[in-house]
Write the structure tokens for this entry.
Amino acid sequence: MIRHIHPPADHAANGIVERANRSVTQIVRTILHASQLSDEFYEYACAWATRLYNALPHSALPMALSPHECLHGVKAELPRLRFGTVVMFHTPDSPAMRGERDIGSSNKLASRALKGIFLGWANGVYTVQRVADGKLHQVRTVQDMKHFTTQYWKPQTTNDEYLPK
């Protein structure tokens, strides 16, 4: 290994990495703009953009393969889920997940699911999703959810808006 010293503002010396960072940043900007989510979701949008970037073909690779395909020998699986769309989910501690009826509920037809925002997968596992809970203002990891691919999160009032704390 040979150590090369470059000036701190010399981005041209590290052009390949800078171009990849720029591409991922452009995808992040597009994702956040399309989903109309705030910059607080940057971390999750960046993870989603990196997954997309690694699954798409690159002209610099032989036969326009994707980085995932070069590394693993198979095409990346891209499920048809969209970042920032509405999901309904159950939490592990909810009565519906335990197979019980909510005794304290006055209306047995009341919704037992929570509304949230789809933010991607937890640790690359397709069965475990990250969801922003619209009421509790936190990001949860869930396994049981219903995804609405055409509905993006649109707060009805300022109280319904997700603002991470």
Q: What stands out?
A: The chain is about 25% helix and 20% strand. The radius of gyration is 20 Å. The mean pLDDT is 76. The helical segments are 15-35, 42-55, 67-72, 95-98.
